[in-house]
Amino acid sequence: MKPKERRTLTTLSKQFRTIGRAWAIKESLGHLWKYRREWIPCRCFNSWYNWAVRSRIPAIADAARTFKRHFENIITYLSLRITNADAERLNAKIQWIKHQARGFRNEGRFERAILFHCGGFDLYPAHSNS
Length: 130
Known about the structure:
Blueprint: H1 3-15, H2 17-29, H3 39-53, H4 58-69, H5 71-80, H6 85-101, H7 107-118
Helix pairs in contact: 1-2, 2-3, 3-4, 6-7
């Protein structure tokens, strides 16, 4: 943060204690994503979780519980650094193709449409120099 932004945040935090506490809790979780070894984020998360649940801010406590439910997947991401984003992107594109066509009469046409839009085919005619 820039110095002016930090001063503004400090002023707001003093005037509205809940906002300041929520901001501090949110910012403290940001350090979790830089770790690669499993035991460091586990320790970091456990202390953050206890702080968040006891913060008396319902939205923060709900978010903390959600993180705890999915923490095993978060640890997997931290160690492997891979996601299923590409599969989700492809699935969304296939659903869009199905929606645009308003249904297909047979599976073959649906397969061809998927291959056409997602397969990376170059259907433009090749130009010859002759």
